[in-house]
Amino acid sequence: MNLPNALTLARIFLVPLLVVVLLTKFEGRLVLGVRKEFVGAAIFAIASFTDWLDGYLARRRQQVTTLGQLMDPVADKLLVTAALVSLVQMDAAPAWMVAVILGREFAVTVLRAVAWARGVVISASPLGKLKMAAQVTAILALILAHEELRGFYVIGRIALWAAVITAVVSAVDYYRRFNGVLSTKSTSSPL
């Protein structure tokens, strides 16, 4: 297994640890006197960083593999889904906003899978990347938001709104590209 794939696998293994840290009720400090919010934010930040790093290393070292191309989006969706659902459980994020974001993830994944099955690749869009940046910002800020750091709650909610808006807009963009690519393909050759 190459290093980029190992980083992706590490991200997957960090997901249950993140959920345990976020959802377990701890009395007092968690690790070496550090609040669980800081530990959870650190786990999420490290996992998010591996998302960038594995792709960078795979391209730079020419170690892009089919396994990596399959595992990376799965790892991303596991991480974001686990974090957002945990935030709902913690009453830090509204369930409807998380449902919109996760519904978009499911819909876009289905569109891309159908296109791929027909021999068409629908690449990530800049809007999708903006949505991911807003999600990461929202998740980090909402994990950190507690009595001593209330400002993070405001930042987190603004970023969550940005994530919801970009989720909807990017879903429409993916749908248009899906229809455009498939209609072009269907006029040139039967599916």
Describe this structure in words.
- The protein is mainly alpha-helical and 191 residues long.
- It folds into 2 domains: 79 residues; 95 residues, no CATH class.
- Helix content is 79%, strand content 0%.
- The protein is built from 6 helices and no strands.
- The mean pLDDT is 89.
Topology:
Blueprint: H1 3-23, H2 36-60, H3 66-89, H4 95-117, H5 126-144, H6 151-188
Give the helix level as a range of percent: over 70%
Shape call: globular
What's the order of the H and E elements? HHHHHH
Q: Give the averaged pLDDT, no decimals.
A: 89
Overall SS class: mainly alpha
Which segments are poorly predicted (pLDDT under 50) over 5 or more consecutive residues?
A: none
What's the total helix number? 6
Compose a concise summary of this entry.
With 191 residues, the chain is mostly helical.
Summary keywords:
mainly alpha; 191 residues; 6 helices
